[in-house]
Design a protein that fits this description.
Elements (H helix, E strand, L loop, with lengths): L1 H41 L11 E6 L7 E6 L5 E6 L4 H10 L1 H4 L16 E5 L20 H6 L10 H11 L6 H8 L9 H23 L3 H19 L15 H16 L9 H12 L2 H14 L8 H18 L1 H9 L2 H4 L5 H5 L8 H12 L7 H13 L1 H5 L4 H10 L6 H17 L2 E3 L3 H5 L13 E3 L17 E3 L9 E3 L10
Parallel strand pairs: 1-4, 5-6
Antiparallel strand pairs: 1-2, 2-3, 7-8
Helix pairs in contact: 5-16, 7-9, 7-11, 8-9, 9-10, 9-11, 10-11, 12-13, 12-17, 17-20
Length: 512
């Protein structure tokens, strides 16, 4: 009996266990289905933070409560959480108390089996005073009142350099961009009067419609060739350019057709360049701010002719930009440059920054911040290559993972690509201005960066100090440095092996 009772009891218990287990499995199944539904509909997901490659907190406001949390997996997959209304500071406190984050920099062998996130860092929007340009907060945004202060009674800009400096540090108020941008883009001369500018507009409007008439009067064969080489691509690009912008939003928006005409007419005006993808990204903001079709066209011509950071279809132009950028990184961020060099040709091609240069950061930052960068570059204050300092600033601020995780070239491309539209543009601008200031103070500059400075106008070295040129030693077509730079050579004295002698130093010849 006892055994029988015991057996019956065991069977009841087993049956109850199976029933409970079935209910548990059913509950888990229901939970999994709910999670799956949330992931599909709302984008909700779960991750084990302890298994992530890195956690980065980027504060975007001065109070350090809002910003982004960037989570990167070991497979280089990224999730970015936005804290628009505060709370990131609370999460930061939690992470700093979490042992997996506090242990992030430990390299002990005993931690290899632990669930530790490999990298954890916090980036605040304020730069240390040692990393800030000394004139950083001395200029406000150029508004109507300040703009009129720069003009005399005839409408001429009295001191071009002061205006450029004000724009470089403070930017331009949106209400007067349409009036100031034509000066920065060399459509208007700074010396021109109001009457001369109005006469120029009438003349240029006539020229613009003559270009358009030339396009519209093509022969059937010319039209067919033009459609294949230019118009087909333009028609595809304009309908998907800046459609979230109110100016271009909606079906049958006439502003989209205006942008299309400008690009087609430019291809007729400059058949050598024609049209390449990305040009629509440059024209759209110009048209949205300047409004007039003819004025926008000639400002775009000025952008393509007279500024250095352009959407260029020529490989040699891009390689020149990359060469300068590599040298700046070697000078200002040697650890990152060493990592690129360790990857060989794949790393030194720097594919991650090609879009930055070609599209002028337009795909990397929201419009408001990207246009501020455009204005700072167009100001040509102390350098014609400020966009390259912006590139270095992005790498300095957001490139920690690349070095610490020894990311390969394709992973670098993914890393910076995932940060697009999530970086702090104002922080990057402040850092770039600081880097330019540090570059300005260097006692010696490698001859590889000679051209980076020689195009600068009045004011580049307004302190009276001119740096010396140091030869980088890479001149296969010349026995000596073509810039008259310093080269290190072995000392001829006997018994002095390993010592170095110096040739005579020359200095840059800057345009004044």
């Amino acid at each position: 009996m006892t055994c029988s009772t015991s057996s019956a009891s065991s069977l009841d218990t087993s049956a109850q266990f199976q029933e409970n287990n079935g209910q548990t499995q059913s509950t888990r199944w229901d939970e999994q289905q709910k999670v799956f539904a949330l992931e599909q509909v709302c984008g909700v997901f779960r991750v084990d933070l302890g298994q992530m490659r890195s956690l980065r907190l980027f504060f975007s406001d001065e109070a350090c409560t809002c910003g982004q949390l960037v989570v990167a997996s070991r497979e280089s997959q990224y999730k970015i959480f936005h804290f628009h209304h505060g709370g990131l500071d609370k999460l930061s406190e939690v992470f700093q108390q979490w042992k997996y984050c506090t242990e992030t920099h430990l390299k002990d062998q005993q931690l290899t089996d632990e669930k530790t996130c490999m990298q954890f860092s916090i980036r605040r929007p304020k730069l240390p005073s040692s990393e800030t340009h000394p004139e950083e907060n001395t200029y406000k945004r150029l508004d109507v009142s300040a703009w009129l202060h720069h003009l005399n009674e005839s409408g001429q800009v009295e001191e071009e350099y002061k205006l450029q400096k004000a724009i470089f540090f403070g930017g331009i108020d949106i209400s007067i961009r349409g009036e100031v941008w034509p000066f920065l883009l060399h459509y208007y001369s700074y010396e021109s009067t109001s009457e001369e500018r109005e006469a120029l507009r009438l003349q240029k409007r006539k020229e613009y419609f003559e270009i358009q008439e030339k396009r519209l009067s093509m022969t059937p064969d010319e039209q067919k060739d033009f459609w294949c080489k230019v118009q087909f691509t333009v028609d595809k690009d304009v309908v998907r350019t800046d459609r979230s912008n109110q100016f271009f939003r909606g079906e049958d928006n006439p502003n989209v057709e205006t942008m299309r005409r400008i690009l087609l007419n430019y291809a007729v005006f400059n058949p050598t360049i024609g049209y390449s993808q990305g040009m629509s990204d440059l024209v759209a903001p110009l048209l949205a701010e300047i409004l007039d079709e003819s004025d926008t066209f000639w400002c775009f011509v000025g952008l393509m002719q007279n500024t250095i950071f352009i959407s260029s279809p020529r490989d040699e132009d891009m390689e020149k930009q990359l060469m300068y950028l590599r040298e700046l990184l070697r000078l200002m961020h040697p650890r990152f440059y060493q990592h690129l060099s360790s990857l060989g040709e794949d790393g030194l091609q720097m594919l991650f920054c090609h879009r930055w240069i070609l599209l002028c950061f337009k795909r990397e930052f929201p419009d408001a911040e990207a246009l501020r960068m455009w204005e700072a570059c167009w100001a040509h204050y102390q350098t014609d290559y400020f966009h390259l300092f912006i590139c270095v600033a992005i790498v300095v601020i957001y490139g920690d993972d690349v070095i610490e995780q020894q990311l390969a070239a394709d992973q670098m491309l993914l890393h910076f690509g995932n940060l697009a539209m999530h970086m702090n543009g104002e922080l990057v601008l402040r850092k770039a201005r600081s880097l330019l200031y540090q570059f300005h103070l260097l006692p010696r500059i490698p001859c590889s960066l000679h051209d980076l400075c020689k195009l600068c106008g009045t004011g580049m070295w307004d302190s009276g100090f001119i740096p010396a040129v140091e030869c980088s030693g890479h001149h296969p077509e010349s026995e000596s440095c073509p810039y008259g730079g310093l080269a290190e050579v072995s000392s001829p004295q006997p018994g002095s092996e390993g010592k170095r002698g110096l040739k005579t130093r020359d200095v840059f010849a800057f345009r004044k």
